[in-house]
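hey so i finally got around to running the thing on that chain from the lab meeting. sorry it took forever, my laptop kept dying and i had to restart like 3 times. anyway pasting the input first so we r on the same page abt which one it is
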Amino acid sequence: MRRVRRTYRDLDRPGRWLHQELLAEGRYDETRGGRRHAYTGRHRLDGDRIDYLDDSGFYAIGSFLGEELYHAEFVMRHGGGGRGTPPAR
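ok and heres what got predicted. didnt touch it at all, straight out
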């Protein structure tokens, strides 16, 4: 598995975006609203499903549909800005 970066932005609500990196060693690192390392933890892929276990003990799931990742209220796509910076419009 390679490093995957996914970015979400909500054009109707400026400043609402996240950047998530899925690392090859089974870790993830998420930036939300400019707050780096807002969520970090482990992830496990099983087909089109991804399970997250946050370092704080929070558990979440997501699903891949094509090139999109559906996680919580977010729909994430490959691409976006660099780490810690919002994607360009």
